[in-house]
From TrEMBL:
Signal peptide: none
Domain (Bacterial bifunctional deaminase-reductase C-terminal): residue spans on this chain: 111-182
InterPro entries with a match to the protein in the record: DHFR-like_dom_sf (IPR024072), RibDG_C (IPR002734)
Organism of derivation: Actinospica durhamensis
GO biological process: riboflavin biosynthetic process
The name this protein goes by in its record: Dihydrofolate reductase family protein
Pfam family of the protein (one): RibD_C
Organism phylogeny: Bacteria, Bacillati, Actinomycetota, Actinomycetes, Catenulisporales
One MF term in the entry's GO annotations: 5-amino-6-(5-phosphoribosylamino)uracil reductase activity
Amino acid sequence: MGSVVMYGSVSVDGFVADEKDQPGPLFDWLTSGDVPLDESGELKVSQESYDHTRSYWNSIGVTVVGRHVFDMTDGWDGTPPSGIEHVVVVTHRPQPEGWDPEAPFHFVEGVEAALAKAQELAGDRIVEVAAGEVGGQVLAAGLVDEVRMDVVPVVFGSGKRFFGLVDVQHLLEDPEVTIQGNRVLHLRYRVRR
């Protein structure tokens, strides 16, 4: 079974979006370099960010997101982002009306059930959990093995927290990876058990 990784771009003060649910400059690092990150050619990063991010993206089997992220992205038009094979959506609501049942999206109630479905689909590949409310719930349930964050030099002051509403202390190990790219610092921590 692959590891469970909570991941997201984050402001230095710990937010994944501002009060209006907008990421602002959090993804500017994805266009701050000259090395294409994907086939679209729209994402260009520094060589350091490419080496770190591309290998991570290639190891993801499934991404787990909340219904809010799914709705905000319009379900990525039925195509999982970044070449990921499946997306598991944590939701209490059914899939949207008219949704293509062949799209590789799975609508599951509760984070434990979502993680079980994601691990089934991912096999020995990484299960990525989006930072924010769902990521915080998965961390609180003790199901996260690793936290990866792309720290961007911006201060939001308030907004949507990286760890959601987590209100209990969780210890992480010292960072295993610290890589500086253009306008980003990539960090990787194991969750202490």
